[in-house]
Predict the 3D structure of the following.
Amino acid sequence: MSPRAGPRIAVALMVAALALFPWTGDVLDTRWPTSYELRLVIRAMILAIVVIGLNILVGFAGLVSLGQAALMGLGGHVAALLALRADFPFAAAMVFAVALPAMMGAVLAFPTVRVRPLYLTVITIAFGVVFVNVLREWVGFTGGASGLASIPRPTILGEPLMAVRRTGFNLYYLIVLCLLLALWVQWALARSRYGRAMRASSQSENASRALGINIVAIRTLAFAISAGFAGLGGGLFANLALFINYETFTFSASIELLLMTILGGSGTLAGPLVGTTVLFAASQALQGLQEWQTFAYGLLLVLVLFLMPQGIVGGLAALRRRLAGGGMAERRTGAWPNFVPGFDAVASEREAAGQATLITRDLTLRFGGLTAVNRVSMEVASSTVHALIGPNGAGKSSVLNVVSGFYRATSGQVSLFGETLAGRAPHQLARAGVARSFQNTELFATMTVLENLLVGCHSRYRAGFFATILRTPRFRAEERGMLAEARMLLEVVGLTGFAEEQARNLPFGHQRRLEIARALALRPKLLLLDEPAAGLTHGEIEELVALIRGLADRGMTVILVEHHVEMIMAVSDRVTVLDHGEVIADGPPAQVQADPRVIEAYFGHGAAQGMPAAAAHAVAPA
Amino acid sequence: MTGKLGFGRRGAALFGLVAMAAAAAVPARAQRAEPCIGASWELTGPLANQGLMLRIAVETALDKINAAGGVLGRPLRLVIYDDVGEPARAVDNGRRIGERDNCVVMFGGARTPNAIALREPLAEMGLPWIGAISAGTGVIEHPNGRNEWMFRVSMKDRWVTQYLIEQAGARSPSGRIAFVYEGTAWGQGALPDIEAAARRAGVTLAGRETFNIGDQDMSAQMIRLRDAGVDTVVLWAVDRESANMLRSMDRIGWKPRIVSAWGLTTAFARAVGPLADGIMVAGTFNWNGPLSPAAQAAFDAMKAKFPDRIRTTADMEQPSAMANAWDAVHIIAEALKIAGSYDRTRLRDAFFRVNYTGLVADYRPAFIRGNQERMDAVLPEAYKLQAFHNGMLMPIEATPFATRTN
Amino acid sequence: MEAVIQYLLTGLSVGSVYAMMGLGFYVMWSAAKAVNFTYGDIFMLGAVLTVVLMDIGIGLLPAALLAILASAAGAAAIERGFVRPFNREASAIGWMLTTIAVGTMLESSTTALFGSNPRMLPSPLAQEPIRLGGAGIYPQELLLPVALVVVTVALELFYRRTLLGRAMRAVAYNRTAAGLVGIDADRITLIAFALAGVLGALAGVLIGPVIQASSTMGAIIGLKGFMVAIIAGIANARGVVIAGLLYGVSEKFIEGYLSTAARDAIGFTLMVLLLLLFPQGLFGKKEFSKV
């Protein structure tokens, strides 16, 4: 039985159960389910749709919204008002019930997602309060606190939609369909670059940017999708209850939706279903405790949050992983670099030789009173390995950060691939062909090794959003291609055995390999490596040198910030030395190595006799 | 180990367990209703006290009826569900009461939107509903004119507003009357009724102000009213916010006459102390002062059943609602007797044949068929004016505030 | 004119409540980077416990003191039991949700035991208002701004001059590094929560006589106090206090000249706009993260 079969069977069973549910009474010759049980299931399904939306926002994109109920209320009121006041037919009203909240979500998110995620949460809270206030006070339009009653019964092609036997429970099945649609979109999103980008952006903003992901855009997309689902749920609710007022969409309701998301297991696919069912059933079941039921509800939540902090589905998955995993000890590490046939493609975007990949003139970077980079002028030629070295605090990483767009230069000119840098954002530079690694490895910790690589491929996809969600043949072909390339890169760095392992579980050296491989997935023209050898063993450093050599041989331009002098000498074509933010030497490795100013900067005054013998001996080609 | 049936003892035991569980979860096919009253009240949240008071009245009344042999030879029981004041939950509970518990009648709660949301489901299930608090006019008088299942033993806001305007007009020296209401469905719903009543009485309202639940200061509203020369306020709000309003008035040194709907209870008086003195409240019943034997017996019974909550008549914190509920339960019992069986449609039809003398009024008849307006049992003639005096809510005749100036 | 005076006076009163709550959030946030969603209920408990203790015969001042101490202990217990276990995890919403759940438990159990009715918290300073022309204020309401000033000054002195205060700032700045120099970060956080508990309960006790003690009085106050702290940038005590007072006064002027019904809608919209204009808060410093 393939690993996919389990979930597929579960889904099939669920669909079958939902489809047969209203007719159980006929089969078993009883009065069950009555309109009460039917209503509960329908209400739970509607909530599940809304929670699926919230799951995408919270679980994938890592943004907490405490305004989901308000967005649901917006969809519901849009549907109700259009039907009541403007005689809109059901389908048309529903389109608006989805679209308006989605737009509202985008409007709320767009300005907010640049700042701390806490602020988005605060803004969603504020939105919820304002929305409820407006609903309650705009008596003429929304009915005020009394709400809108006698909403016209929805019809499709003249057929009334009701959850009763007479109509074949058509409203019920419509809602089942909507739920399945929501589940599909959630699943398709998760298994696409959009879902991966959302999860990446929540785990490491910097790495995401450096791989070409527009954080603002992806977060706004997540919010819009999430709000669209909320609107769908709200519209369905309005057409079920035929009465709507603000009380259903208060701050407490938003909290409950968030709890359902987390309790089920944020970020999991089945989580919304489980969380909704459990909490909704609990609130009905606890009725027996009368005035203590809310207390018991809170107690139940605390218990579940304690015992299963990853939620029910998340906890079960973690348990399964722990029981199944022979784990790390059994995984075999491959040798690297393993220049497999497909590797040439990595450098396929390279520039022609003899170009000036990077030119800086008088580049200056100041942080308040501290000048990190002071009038640095350097030139990096294409298809070379250019090292940037210097003592700690020399400004090396700062230069890298300017070139990759993370810092903006205070003054000076930087030209990249023949064009000025012009304050472009990191993700734009990534798409222009600049890839980098980070001093502190910024892997996407809970994503698998393979997923990390696929995020690296993100910017190279051509398939658009709808093609992705619908999983068109063209999208699937592209995904297969990217997957193949990701696996190829894994082979290159010898991590094939770890493909399904979470990145955070990797030993340190393997993490480094992964980060470089991920940068290569971008097929960059320029690769920036920020102290890639830090913390590696001697043998690993030799392997790293071989990899860089292999890249250089295939024409890629590499800028290498490093401390390991022997590594620099072994692999670079040219070396620039910085000290206190200024260039003190620039030239071929041998020349720089003997430069007295360089020696003084590293070893202090009175050591200008040349580099210690040990360093010279360590220059051993791999 | 397989037995004769082919799936072994363990399989059979498992099947048996599942079958029993399934059978227990499924109610038997019912043609008649159960002898239960289903209630959807607010048991938790800011109006939890109202739910509690209703429970005290209804449970005590049922105890008394059951002690005397029940109705149609069977004891009548109460099942209560919490709707947290939310209409969707109220409908959930309504369906549960009507379908799962198969009760013969549903007892309504405090919130008007909950009752409105229940209109359709009640009609669809054929479940009679009787309210003892929610006074919104629209609860009983449906816009389509076809209310067939919802009855009420309580006040009707359209009549209350008329009553209050009349009382305010009789006591306002300058005739400058203002309406202050809470921003809830109950408060907002009364505004059109007050406007209509004022027009009918030839009164022009000198101001309309509102505040939200949870508000702690109403200085802005009070300043506006004071500056408009208002000397009498018709108040439509509940205890806590009204208490804060009184303090806001106290701060700016403005003390108008106040004639209030029944949102004010002894809790209000306890919260503001001497500031409550002289404030008038419309209601259907008062437990302080001389009680009829029936009322005294009712009070004694509630006191005996809930000794921790009801020690003196001052603890009857929702006085009118509790009397309404007491009467409502008895009217249900009477109607069931007339119906002759636990059948919802027959019960609904029997309601129109009930004649009963209750605590609040003489219901002869309680309801009139074919007249939606008269599915309210308590007529304006039964409304009583009360006033706070020395921390107690007394019938107005027992206070120094009984004289009308106009 | 007297309307303006009234709005300023009442704005001062209600703004002091927001400011005190904001201070509490500031203290807790800087020590644990955690938001305590039960804080509104701590405020409520300050008032409600005082009433309960007075019911059994204890005098106003000892009852108030006991209530504050009990609430502070409660806040510490919440930190120990419901915030600390979750602050270890990467998941930032663990503590958010548990404190929400605990808040639900606190409010519902109080409603079940104390009832939902408002109760008077009798204080001699809330009987007779001081009148200034057509405006007035209870002497009780002046206690809060005074307490606010005292607390702010005390807090700033505490953070700057005492060892414990500096340890708290160290933990706020970098928890791990503080641990490395021998500071028990967990104990510091516990103390911070207890301190915040004192502030919240104090606010409840001081304003209770004016707004009545009820089991649901804390919810919206907690929310507004939190928003005030965020708008101020949760950066320093003075900024939070100023933001709180400004918000309180703004609310009154909005009620006076725009709309009482839409007060919260307008107020919160303003806060959102402020947040978008000043992403680091009104008084916060622009954050810079090293890449």
About this structure: Residues 1-31 of chain B have pLDDT under 50 and may be disordered.
